[in-house]
Amino acid sequence: MITLKILGCGGGMPMINRFLSSTLIHYQGKKILLDCGEGTQVAMRNNKTGFKNIDIICITHLHGDHIFGLPGLLSTMGNSGRTLPVTIIGCIGIRDAVKGLLSTIAYLPFELIIIENPKNPLSITHSSHRLVVEEYSIVNEAEIILNILELDHSSSCMGFRFDIIRKAQFNPEKAIALNIPKQFWSTLQKGQTVSYDNKVYEPNMVLENKRKGLKISYITDTRPIEAISDFIKGSTLFICEGTYGDDADLKKAIKNKHMTFSEAAGLAKSGEVKELLLTHFSTAIENAEIYKSFADDVFENTVIAYDGFVKKLSYKH
Amino acid sequence: MITLKILGCGGGMPMINRFLSSTLIHYQGKKILLDCGEGTQVAMRNNKTGFKNIDIICITHLHGDHIFGLPGLLSTMGNSGRTLPVTIIGCIGIRDAVKGLLSTIAYLPFELIIIENPKNPLSITHSSHRLVVEEYSIVNEAEIILNILELDHSSSCMGFRFDIIRKAQFNPEKAIALNIPKQFWSTLQKGQTVSYDNKVYEPNMVLENKRKGLKISYITDTRPIEAISDFIKGSTLFICEGTYGDDADLKKAIKNKHMTFSEAAGLAKSGEVKELLLTHFSTAIENAEIYKSFADDVFENTVIAYDGFVKKLSYKH
């Protein structure tokens, strides 16, 4: 099961009653943070998420409302006893941005691994007590495949899709029938071949067909370009910016390279996602719920995010 | 009259119910901000202070809890229509720190004037619709003289003292008795000499002796070094860090280069200030009021700051 928490759902500037857009993915005892505007660490305190187990931070783009919280959060993670490396994944310029933002920090007690503008999917796996990010290859048994899409905003901006792989089920009856010694079962379950006593045991001898995992897409900030529909296709959850609620604000959305609720819902529909979660509301929106019908008219299964909103996603049997 | 607002009174990390230490001085329609940790712009929204008229930002030192709010605040000031230059005054390294923190900001609609580690007092005057900062000289008719003291913290750190000058009173009876034409009265009142019709009119012909102004001292973060007592001598208000409330935490205070309440009160006493305002409380302090007696035992006129605390200072007749 995956738990997602919306730490904040605001865009542009931090407000009194709304933190800036940021989402925390809880995955098997570890955390992946998506965007980190000013105040994200306070939102994390509010939600009692803890600071130590954040292994990966994905930054969509370098606008302040998505990145200015980074130096404070990393300092606080250091103060909270973090010593394991932290991986930051971001668009073109992320390396210089982090260098600049952290220039006054004399020392962090952990290594920062920065992956700038990756062109190919990345694999995420548990290793060395943390989530490790590497270039994805077929050989690589990724737990999560992180896919990236270039978006259409006023600065270079990346959309993310997390394909959470569900392990193939091990069939003990087949293993018994084939006389495979029990000591090799866990190795085969991990997808690795075993050679022993002139015999070769292949994973497909004991594993059932792969089961359907989960797809979480995160798209902010951007105009609703066509490529997004394919990218998010069939997502279990599609987290998308809805900077403007009312269709009447379409001109502003076009000018500022953002989306209206109904445009986001249009992507949800063409992308055939299970559920749309709207976030990143303009500072002019006090209560986003009142604009919900603009999305509902296009895509029925829409939820309006709020700070502290929690979503649990389970595998379907 | 001067109004001061404590925007936040926390030290170390931003907390849910306490903003980081920051003070806003309202002076004749303009504002001077002292320190800017993560969330200071939100504290300003909380206090409805507005963002446009902040002419000067003084940064004591480069630790995150005093500076990480700067990129966000400056962005928001730009979004709020600021076009007049903003002066930032800070310790050694402030120029590089600002450059780094602002490296992702493509454009600010105002000029930043940075004064790094000034060695001599500065003068602050109204000019060109803003408060202008220059090196202080006797000739210069400063409205405020800003004095700076090197403190004793774990990084280079500056204490500030604002000497707010009260203009000498104009005596119209003297001017009438000396037959000084009315058209020159305002020039003389400004302290400038007038030559007209072979006559020379000096300001001291019509101005009474200078009246006592106000002294506001701002000392954080530091150990209580001796030089502070002289620096703050006779202050109307002495804003001082009290990171630790209990005397039992003296060892921590020494180790982390901070002060206890009683140490700050000791400075208030030896500096013969009118009033001590304690701020910059450790994250371990939930309610600073319960430690007040540690200060009171040393210096009677102590006030414990809280977020949103307002102090109005008037000239004494």
Automatic annotation (TrEMBL), chains A, B:
UniProt EC number: 3.1.26.11
Keywords associated with the record: Endonuclease, Hydrolase, Metal-binding, Nuclease, tRNA processing, Zinc
Active site annotation, chain numbering: 65
Reaction equations catalysed: Endonucleolytic cleavage of RNA, removing extra 3' nucleotides from tRNA precursor, generating 3' termini of tRNAs. A 3'-hydroxy group is left at the tRNA terminus and a 5'-phosphoryl group is left at the trailer molecule
Gene Ontology MF term list: 3'-tRNA processing endoribonuclease activity; zinc ion binding
Cofactor(s) required for function per UniProt: Zn(2+)
Pfam families on file: Anti-Pycsar_Apyc1
InterPro entries hit by this protein: RibonucZ/Hydroxyglut_hydro, RNase_Z/BN
Binding site residues for Zn(2+) 1: 61, 63, 153, 221
Primary enzyme class: hydrolase
Annotated positions binding Zn(2+) 2: 65-66, 221, 280
Note on how the cofactor is bound: Binds 2 Zn(2+) ions.
Top-rank taxon, per record: Bacteria
NCBIfam families (UniProt xref): PRK00055.1-3, RNase_Z
Cited function: Zinc phosphodiesterase, which displays some tRNA 3'-processing endonuclease activity. Probably involved in tRNA maturation, by removing a 3'-trailer from precursor tRNA.
Similarity comment: Belongs to the RNase Z family.
Oligomeric and partner information: Homodimer.
Protein name as it appears in the record: Ribonuclease Z
Species, as recorded: Alkalibaculum bacchi
